Amino acid sequence: MGAILTVTNLVKSFGGIAAVRDVSVNVEEGSISSIIGPNGAGKTTLFNLLTGIYKPDSGSIMFNGQSLVGKRPDQVNKAGMSRTFQNIRLFPSMTVIENVMVGMHSRLKISLFDAIVRTKKFYEQEAHVVEKAHRLLKFVGIDEHANEISRNLPYGDQRRIEVARALASDPKLVLLDEPTAGMNPQESTEAMNLFRKIRDELGVTVVLIEHDMRVVMGISEYIAVLDYGQKISEGTPNDVRNDPRVIEAYLGRRTTSTEAAQ
User: Fold this and answer.
1) pLDDT tens-digit profile of 242-253?
2) Which of 9, 103, 130, 131 is most buried, taking the most CB atoms under 10 A from its CB?
3) Full-model pTM
4) pLDDT tens digits, residue range 49-67?
5) Which domains, ranges and CATH numbers included, belong to the chain?
């Protein structure tokens, strides 16, 4: 299908310290890819650059045929890219379904006049939004909790709310920042099945930042490895697993690949 996202020579520094150094990545449309690396490698900074939270010092970000450099997060979202965050960012006092409905704001087609006067168009749009939110909650497996306060749900279900909200804007690509963090092995397996379902049933390209190597190696078709802001390896799970530079980055310079495999 070709690349839906092409990142070329991306650079971002903070106070003279390079958080992302000359990083280039291609993400194929319809793929499930992962960005991995030790803590502080620059993974979340890369996501923040892609989604307009940070502006790169140099380099290009081409998404679905258009440049994202200089675009605000809402413009990036409208272009077709959505994300979740490393730390859960729900509206804790709102219901589960209300949190998902918030994610549809970039696709709403009503004017301020419609909202104030409560026109027929407003009520039709409202009914559509509610129906779609229920559909997404059913898709991620928590529709029975739609009217509960989001903060009262277990951690794993709160992660699912975030995924449903990210899907609410009809993205072409979704970035998931440590989506299985804090999950037990069964929950992680269920999450992997959900990610495949997002790609296979919705046709959404998926990119993960993930520390759980069982998840990464079990689901990814392409992996890019960052260390100290630089890309040190990329390829299939097997390529990356056997790359001495990756073993060194994770386990230290004194560890041989034989020791890493044990």
Assistant:
1) 999 998 887 664
2) 103
3) 0.87
4) 999 999 999 999 999 999 9
5) 1-80+171-262 (3.40.50.300), 88-170 (3.40.50.300)
